[in-house]
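Lecture notes, part 5. Sequence design as translation. It can be helpful to think of inverse folding as translation between two languages: the language of shapes and the language of residues. The source text, in C-alpha cells, appears below.
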C-alpha cells in the first residue's frame, strides 16, 4: 500500500498572509494555505494528523508523488 492510498493531503480553506521585508528594502506579500494531512481510516472516515505524525505522512506522500512522477533530467 502506498502512502497515497493511506493518507489524504489537502490545504485548508483559510489563508495566511505574511508581509516580508528583505534586507534590500523589497517588500513582499506572501499568501499561503496551510497543508493538512489526514489518515484514511478503515471505515472510510478521515482522522487529521498533527506534529510528527503529519510530517512523517507528508514526507511519505511526497516520496510517492516523486516515485510516480519522476523529474526528467533535462528539466530546468
Amino acid at each position: 500500500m502506498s502512502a497515497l492510498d493511506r493518507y489524504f493531503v489537502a490545504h485548508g480553506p483559510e489563508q495566511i498572509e505574511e508581509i516580508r521585508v528583505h534586507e534590500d528594502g523589497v517588500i513582499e506579500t506572501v499568501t499561503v494555505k496551510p497543508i493538512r494531512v489526514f489518515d484514511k481510516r478503515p471505515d472510510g472516515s478521515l482522522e487529521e494528523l498533527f506534529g510528527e505524525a503529519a510530517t512523517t505522512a507528508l514526507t511519505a506522500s511526497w516520496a510517492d508523488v516523486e516515485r510516480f512522477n519522476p523529474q526528467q533530467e533535462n528539466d530546468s
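The translated text above is only one of many valid answers, since several sequences can fold into similar shapes. Residues 38 and 49 are 5 Å apart (CA to CA).
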